[in-house]
Every structure is written in C-alpha cells, then in structure tokens.
Amino acid sequence: MKDLYDSMERENDLKDQLKFSEEEAKMMRRRVSDMDEENESLRVQLQKMSEKASKHKKREKEREKQLEEERKEREVRTANLAKDEGDTGSLSSDVILVVGAEGSDVISSDEPIPITQRKDSTDEDLMNVMQLRIQLEMLEQELLNSHKKLDEMDLENENLQEEVKFLQGRLTAYESQGSGPRDPPPEGSGSAAESYWEEKVRELAAEADDLRWRLIEKDREMERIAVVSGNSYS
C-alpha cells in the first residue's frame, strides 16, 4: 500500500505542475499580446516616418533644383556684368559664391561644395526608418516563433491532461481492487498475488515519473521562451 500512496502523491504533484504550466502559458499569451501591440505600434511609426522622409526628400530635391537654377542665373548675370564693365577681376579668385542652406552662404575655397554633398535631416530620417524597419523585422520573427511555441505548448498541455486523466483512472481502478476482496492467489501461492499488485504499482510509478520529466522539460522550454520574450523589451 505504501507504493500506492507514493503513486497517488506523484499524481498530485503532476497535477500541481500541470497547473503551474498552464499559468505559465497564460503569461506567455499576455506577453505575445503585448508584443503584437508593440508590433502594430512600430508599423504605424514606420509608416509615418517613411511618409515624412519621402515628403522631406521630395521638398529637398525641389529646393535643390530651385537653388541650382538661381545659382546659374547669378553666374550669367555676373558674367554679363563683368563683360559690360570690362572688369573680369572684380571678384576675388579665392572667394567662391556657393548656395548654402539659406541660399546665401559665401565660403573661401578652391572648389565649390556640390549641393548633393550638403548634409540635411533627410539622411537622418532615412537612417531612422532603416533602423526601425530592422527592429520591426526582428520583432515579427520573435512573434512568429512565440506563436509557434504557444501552439506546441497548447498541444502538449492537452496531451499531459489526457495522460493525467489516464493515470487517475489507473490509480482509481487499482485502489478499488485493492480495497475489495482479492482473487485467490494463483495455484495457492500466497506471494503470487502480492507480486502481481507490486508490479502494477511499479508500472504506474514509472508512468508517473515519465510524465513528471515531460513536465520538467516543458517548464524549461517555457523559461527559454520567457527569456526570449523578455529580451525583446530590453
């Protein structure tokens, strides 16, 4: 009977572990839900930044085109003025008029700075969009893996519940047979029946141990998933 009580204790322990496993699965679902919301927020933010960068880039191109036309017009006017006055040295050779951010920058240089090399906020916006897109792709991959793990956990939970029910039925049947009148020992042997029931108890204990290890492995797998989900918020 001691082996029977040990098996019952193992069964209760397995039920407690299964309950804990279900609670962990609920926590994982909440984390995945939060990750879904963050994913949607990143999508909206990425769309806004992409639209902003596109509009900014378009305005910059139009502005550069306008400044380039104004620069050419000034060069033509300057050349015509110098030709009319006969004074080609009226401008210093080391001072070159370059259209800057405000259209009136004058710098000393041997070579004018091309307009395409000027730094503006467009480059920074594009860089932010790229970084946000990479972050979004990583989050989507983590979400995909988390959803897959949750599906596997749900299936494993169902299997564990079925095994626990089966084990409960076996224990109940054994308990019922052990409490009632037993069949006479085969061939009049007093130890044959006892050996038979001891073997049944060992089988049930082996099944309970196997189920326990499966639950332990499941807990470890859930801990790994929790770590991965936690890293996505850091």
UniProtKB/TrEMBL annotation:
Q: Which superkingdom heads the taxonomic lineage of this protein's source?
A: Eukaryota
Major site of localization recorded for this protein: membrane
Q: Which Pfam families match?
A: SOGA
Q: Which InterPro entries match?
A: MTCL1-3 (IPR049885), SOGA_CC (IPR027881)
Q: Which GO terms describe its cellular component?
A: extracellular space; membrane
Question: What protein name applies here?
Answer: Sodium/hydrogen exchanger
The SOGA coiled-coil domain, residue ranges: 12-81
Question: Where in this chain does the entry annotate a coiled-coil region?
Answer: none
Q: Where in the cell is it found?
A: Membrane
User: What's a GO biological-process term for it?
Assistant: regulation of autophagy
Keyword annotations of the record: Coiled coil, Membrane, Phosphoprotein
Biased composition (Basic and acidic residues) is annotated at 1-34, 61-86
